[in-house]
Amino acid sequence: MSRPMAIPPNLAKTQAQHSLTFKLQRRLEAAIRDARNMKAEAQVAQLGWAQARATQAADLKVMTEQASTIKGLEAENTAVKAVRDAQKSHIKLLTQANIAGMSVHNEDEDDAIGLQAGARKQEASVKRAEDAAADMEKKAAESSEERSEAFKMAKAKVNGKKRPTYSDSSPDWAST
Question: What is the domain count for the chain?
Fold first, then answer.
């Protein structure tokens, strides 16, 4: 004869929570249905009340007495309480589920924040690389100008001329 398998405690707790949630949800749906029916009955009573007021004063008196009976108010009050209780239970269960899932959610947020920080670092390094490339281009242009002037001077020496003279408006040659 085989022994029945025991249900693990965490699975039993989860099943109990699901069962409770299902029962509360059914109660909530029933309370909502009752409230809607009462609302529809009140609307019908209100329409009937308006028609009765227009037609006969005797019918008006009967309908207002029926609409204001204690049983009707008690039923409405009971439905409202049932809806509130079901909503409170539902909120408690959602809160428990959110608390249980919060650690996973926080880890996901940490991963997302890390990815954003990595993207910002990469953008900053790309910006630095672009700035460095612009500086190198500028230095290359300056170096090219210096080489062309040096080439002109060397060419002048080779041709047997002395150093070329420049006007005083050129501060580079005036200082040397």
Answer: 1
